[in-house]
Amino acid sequence: MRDVVNDFFSYSFSIDGPVWRTLRLLVLNPGKLFHEFIEGRRKSYYKPIEFFVLTALIYFAFAELIGFDPLKDQFAGPAPGSAQPYMEHIKEAAQFMVKNVNNFLFLRVLSIAIVLKTLHWKRHTLAEYLAVGFYISGFYLLIGMLDLVGSLFELSSGQFKLFLFPLYFTYAYVSFRAKLAWSTVLLGLISSIAVFVFYMVMSFGFSLLWVAL
Fold it and tell me: Residue 120 belongs to what domain range?
């Protein structure tokens, strides 16, 4: 974390510095950024792991500052009598997951890498897809700050970013493939759903297991 902060302040505050150049491509042409990194042209951009750590620090610092609770009103109603024990386990697991979400973030990166590797296992290595996963997950955390801002004005309950992830992932996937076709868009959307399901199975499944034990 200290190295990330030092790097960030040492060379990132120029108008055309690595952070801003990285962010610009993640918005305008994420596929170009992914290919630039994979092909070894990396000095002009912020490193994927450092970028992911930096965005996570910003996100969680802001969430802590405003007292954001993603589970607010999620378990307000009473559960039916027969389902009450199960709902208690689910509630405890959800609370555990939220409390330790910073420890589960890498699972999203891993989910992205595994899904991309499964789809295109001959194109790149798993490590290269992990770099893509760090960039996408880091930028998704920045997108998630829209939820945090929205919660201040009671415009969002923390679920808005769930709809933004498949949209941005599909956009990044199409840009990465450099092929604008309905089949590519559909495959990107299906991949985003697979990433979400894989991430939730691993993170929430582990939380349920931890609570049960």
Answer: 2-70+83-212
Q: What is the enclosing helix (H) or strand (E) of 206?
A: helix 182-212
Indicate whether 35 belongs to any domain. yes
- Within a domain: 127: yes
Q: How far apart are the first and last CA of the chain?
A: 32
Q: What is the pLDDT along the chain (213 residues), one digit of tens a residue?
A: 666 666 655 555 554 568 888 999 999 999 999 999 999 988 889 899 999 999 999 988 888 888 777 666 565 555 555 555 667 778 788 888 878 888 889 999 999 999 999 999 888 999 999 999 999 999 999 988 887 887 777 665 556 677 888 999 999 999 999 888 899 999 999 999 999 999 989 998 888 888 877
| C-alpha separations of 16 from 44, 73, 193 in Å | 9, 43, 35
- Domains in the chain, number: 1
Cβ contacts of 13 within 8 Å, gap of 6 or more: none
CB atoms within 10 A of CB 200: 15
Q: Is residue 78, in this structure, part of any structural domain at all?
A: no
Q: What pTM did the predictor assign?
A: 0.83
Residue 75 lies in a domain: no
Q: How far is it, in rounded angstroms, from Cα 141 to Cα 55?
A: 6
CA 212 to chain centre: 27
